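The data layer described in this paper is built around a simple, fixed record for each protein. We quote a single record here, exactly as it is kept in our systems:
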Amino acid sequence: MRAWARLSDRLLGSAAYEGSPPLWLVTEGLVVAATSTALVAGSGTVAVLVGMSPAQAVAAVAVAVAAVTLYLLITRAGHLLVAGTALLGILLSPGVSGVATEAVLTGAGRTQDVVVTVVAHEPTGSPAYYCSVRHQDGSPVGARLWRGCGPSVAPGDLIGMVYDPAGRVAPRGIEGPGALLWGLGRTVMLMLAFTVVCFVAVVRSYCVPSSAQSDQPRGCGPMSPSPKAGS
C-alpha cells in the first residue's frame, strides 16, 4: 500500500488534506492557472502582432508552455498532470497563433481579388490544394493560398484574398465562416482544458498539515531526522 501511495503521489500529486482543499489553496490554483493561460495566449498573440512568422509564433507559445511546465515541476505537481499540461500546451500552440492571425485579418484586413497562376495538388498534405496567386497589376503574392483553392480552380481564375496592409501576418484566401469557427472553437476548448489541468495540478501538489496529523503529513516526503542531544 505504501508503494502504491508513493506512486500515486508521484503521478497525481500529494493532495495530503482531508475533504475539500482549503480556500487559500483553491485561490492559488486559480491564480496560477489563469496566469499560465494568459502567458501562453499572450505570447502567441504578441508574437503575431510584432510580425513574427507562424513558426516563430508557435515557438514563442512553446517556450511559454515550457515555463509553465517547469513551474509545476518545481512545485512538485503530479507528473501525469504536468505531462497533460505540456501536451495540451503543445496542441494549443498552433491554435493560439492562428486565432491571433485571424483576429488581425478580421480587425485590420482588407479584401481583394487575386489571379491564380498555379494550382498545386499535393495529395499527401492537408489541405491538398494550394494556389499560387498574383495581384491584378501583375505583382506576385509571396504566400500560397489554400482557402478558396480546390480542384475546380484553374490558372487565370480570380479568387478572394484577405491581407493585412501592415504586413504583420500572411494573407489567406476567403472561405466560409464554418472552418474559421471550428478552429476558434477547438482552440477555446483546448485552452479551457489547459486551464483546468493546470489548476488541478497546483491544488494536488500541496500537502496541508492538520491538527490531527503530524507536522509532516502523508505525501510530503519523509521527515528529516531530529538532531540528537549533545550533537
